[in-house]
Amino acid sequence: MVAYGKAEVERTPHYWSEVQRKEVARLAGIKKIGGMHAEYQPKSKSGKIIAGRSVWFDTRIVRSKPQTIMMIVDAEQRIEEIVVCNFSEPLDYKPVDRWYAQFEGKRLDSDLKLKKGIHGVSGATLTSRATTAAVREMLAAHAVAHPIPKKQKGKDQK
Questions:
Q1: β-strands 54-61, 79-87: how paired?
Q2: Which of 8, 13, 22, 45 has the most CB atoms lying inside 10 A of its own CB?
Q3: Is the Cβ–Cβ distance between 58 and 87 less than 8 Å?
Q4: Residue 83's domain spans which residues?
């Protein structure tokens, strides 16, 4: 996997309980989430998962065709990078790479929204909305899968 170089990777499917599902939706600011989220983490040579860095994927319809993005999250639940793996809409609707780069360093908080901490893209409004929603949902899933103890949370983090 590109995010981990040659390291062995373990895929962990997260099948949420009803309580967890509601918490992911609440944190993401949506009514309902998908059925499962898959997380990928690097393994040490001894086969143990190395905590602190996770990769999440999201595929959703932008206008009428799918976009798949990969998001790398660090131990402080900040976005390291977003990579567009697939964009099936016409390329006119795909923002430039520097638009996706504005997510780097951000975490799930009240500013991680269009017209707040995320700038929209004229001509790619639906892509901007879909990407921001995907990022919020993946960060919410990460937060539920790996809660940070309250004393370590930043003041803006939910």
A1: unpaired
A2: 22
A3: no
A4: 8-147
